[in-house]
Structure formats: structure tokens, C-alpha cells
Amino acid sequence: MLAVIHTPPRGDGTALRARLAEDRSPSGVWRFGELVLPSAVAVAVSHPEGNTPLLSRSALSAWTSIDGLRLKHEGHNPTGSFKDRGMTVAMTQAKRIGARAVACASTGNTSASLAAYAAHAGIPAFALVPDGQVTTGKLAQTLAYGARTLLVDGDFDTCLRLLQEASAELGVHLLNSINPFRLEGQKTIVFELLQQLEWQAPDWIVLPAGNLGNTAAFGKAIDEAIAWGLIDRRPRLAAVQAAGAAPFAAAFARNFDRLDSVQATTIASAIRIGAPASYQRAVRAIRSTNGVVLSVTDAEILAAKVAIDRAGVGCEPASAASLAGARKLRSDGVIQPKDVVIAILTGHILKDPGILQEIHGPVSIAPALANPPVRVAASIAAIRAQLKSPPSC
Ligand code: F0G
């Protein structure tokens, strides 16, 4: 597998930290350009992206019993997911090498991001997505930004396999996270949160895991942050999978002896992946950070999502796997009460309007969590009666 290798500058990181503090780039990816792709900063295809908030919410600290819980909300990116950070770098590189066309297989967020950045770069784009398994919001974005979208009669793993074969044959530039430039951009989630924490490494970074590109990128970012003197100790990574799509968690439980792919099923369609492409690099990331991999059930994901939504923060279901995982690790005693824990929210609440309908609509899949709309007559008496009894917070 190809990787981008950087040579750390001499010194203890003080000068680099000072340069980063001064940088006024509108992009939270290209601000870290010298740790990402130094030669491309001036020609970046940028919307711009990054600069996402690090939030603390007392309701969610209480829900997880972790006082030092913070949420890094990647749903604040231009297309509503963390994928924009890797896409700006990979699309910049595709443009530099004169790619004729770009393509990805996707559960929806990568395709939305690919489409938006390809439009900006002026490069034709193809997206292969599993028919009927991509949320309305993501499919709408991919179409609207102009990618030629192929609805494939198969799952994500099939889409990726087919695309790898066809793109090699036809010379179409592949922009899945096996593309090393994607990982370079995704590293900046870690750099940015470390900068927001004034370069004090947290104890844990917890993230949802599907195809494992992000887990791999986080491991590389932590290695480099140490090598460049930005931090002096490694945060531990916790990668969280959905129970019905958890080949990485199963391999971790067997000390990574092998990867057995699975037929993936989960309500968190973004991480409905059974044969993760970046497995080897993700194993290295977990090992080098003394990390853990776990799975959470769909019911746990739903409960976490509703807690995040009700805190006024909101996210798509896959993102909530991180909070569900943090809560589980705390209740199992792996995360300690005073630990500083960063949970990554990977995508925006509006990415998946369908699940909101299913939770809050007339026939709820989780009645205890539902906030159904109240149909009322157009009369002052009816409105008055309602306003007299506010909902609970
Ligand atoms: N969260 C969200 C919202 C995602 O869209 C994805 C992956 C992940 C987490 C998992 O990240 O694959 O790097 O382990 N989405 C890909 C896509 C597969 O096509 O949009 P990962």
C-alpha cells in the first residue's frame, strides 16, 4: 500500500506550534499543510473545510458518566461530514496529476464529498453506491453536485471491489480512502483537536469505524504528532463498530490473528461494511496507541443518537456509535471517570432524515425515545392548551 512519508523538522515542536497558531488559512486542513502535502498548499481545491467545533455538553457528560467528554463535530464540514478533509487533499492531487475522471464507491458521504470537490476542480466524477442503502440526504447531495451516480445491485463491499477492478483497467482515478492522499487530509481531525486542546493530549479519542480509513489516518496523525514534537504522549484510540458490521472488533478480540469479512447489517448505513479495505493500517493504529476496538448494538447507537440530538447537537446514526462506545467503555471501567475523552461525530443530523422519521414518526422504532409531532386544530384554544404544558428538557 502506498503512503505519504514526512520528514519531521528538527526541534521540539515549539516553532511548529507557533507557526500553526499564526496561520490564518480559512481551511482547517491546509492550515496543517506542512504536515499534509506541503507542495500543494498554494493550489488546493478547497471549499474550505475543517475548523470544526469541539463541544462539551453537560447532558452528554452525565449520559456517559464522563466529565471530561468533548465532541469533535465533523458534521460542520461543507458537505456535512469528515470526508471533506480527505477529499480536499486527494482532489488537489488528482487535479495536479491531470486525472481524466475520478471515482469512488460509497455508503453516501464519500460520494457527496467527491461530487462537491470534483465540481470545484472541474473533473468528471463517478460514484458507485449500493442501491437502496444510501440515505436520502447523501444521495441527493451526490446527484445535485453532479456526479454520475451508479446504483449498484449489491452492498458497499461489492461496489468497492468492482470499482477497484474497473478503475485500474480504465485509468479512472480512485478516491476511496485506500488513496493515501485521503488519509493525509483526515489526519487533520486529530491535529485540529490537539490544537484546540492547546497540545495537551487527551486520554482517549473515540471514533466510529467502517472501512477503517479514518482509524488508519488517526494512527498516522498520532505517530506524526509525537515525531514532530506537538504532543508528548499518545492518546489511546477506541474504534467503535456496529454489532452487525463488526469484523474489526471480532479480529481485535482474537488479537488480530486474521480478518473474517461479514455480511454487514446495521441501521447505521454509513458503516454498513463487512470487508474493511484499510484493515492492516488500522491494526497498526490500534496497536501503536494501545487502543481498543469494540462493537455496539443498533439499540445502543439509537439511544446515543437521540441523546446527542436532544442535546441540540445532532448527528447521523453512524456518528453516534462513538458516543455509545464511550459510554460502554466507561461502564466497563476501561475509560476512567476523570479521563479526557474526545468522541468524533462524523456526520450531520440531516444526512439521514429517514431515521428521524422512523424514530419520531407515527410508528416509532423506538417509542420510548420518540418526540412525535402533535396535530392540532387551527384555533387559539387548541394552541393555548398546548402552550400550557411545555415538553420536558
Ligand atoms: N462515519 C460516517 C458518517 C461515515 O460516512 C463513515 C464512512 C464512517 C464513520 C467510517 O469511517 O470508513 O473511515 O472507517 N463512510 C464511507 C463512505 C464508507 O462511503 O461515506 P471509515
Task: Tell me briefly what this model is.
The chain is an alpha/beta fold and 393 residues long.
Describe this structure in words.
The model has no long low-confidence stretch (mean pLDDT about 95). The protein is about 40% helix and about 10% strand. The longest helix is centred in the middle third of the chain and has 15 residues, at about 155-170. It is built from 15 helices and ten strands. With about 400 residues, it is of the alpha/beta class. It is globular, with a radius of gyration of 21 Å. It has two domains: about 1-80 and about 180-393, 3-Layer(aba) Sandwich (Rossmann fold), CATH 3.40.50; about 85-180, 3-Layer(aba) Sandwich (Rossmann fold). It starts with 13 loop residues before the first helix and ends in a 6-residue tail after the last helix. It has helices spanning about 15-20, 60-65, 85-95, 110-120, 135-145, 155-170, 180-185, 190-195, 215-225, 245-255, 280-290, 300-310, 315-330, 355-360, 380-385; strands at about 55, 70-75, 100-105, 125-130, 150, 175, 205-210, 235-240, 290-295, 340-345. The strands form two sheets. It has a six-stranded mixed sheet with strand order 1-2-10-7-8-9, sandwiched between helices. It has a four-stranded parallel sheet with strand order 5-4-3-6. Bound molecules: ligand F0G.
Compute the gyration radius: what is it?
A: 21 Å
| CATH architecture assignment name of the largest domain | 3-Layer(aba) Sandwich
Q: What is the total domain count? A: 2
Main sheet attributes: strand count, strand direction, barrel closure: 6 strands, mixed
Helix content: 40-55%
Provide the list of bound ligands, each named once: ligand F0G
List unreliable stretches of 5+ residues: none
Order of H and E elements: HEHEHEHEHEHEHHEHEHHEHHEHH
CATH class of the largest domain: Alpha Beta
β-strand number:
10
The fold-level CATH name of the largest domain is Rossmann fold
Average pLDDT over all residues: 96
**Number of continuous helical runs:** 15
CA-to-CA gap between the ends?
50 Å
> Largest beta sheet: what is the strand line-up?
1-2-10-7-8-9
| Shape, principal axes of CA atoms | globular
What structural category arises from helix and sheet content?
alpha/beta
Q: How large is the share of residues in beta strands?
A: 5-15%
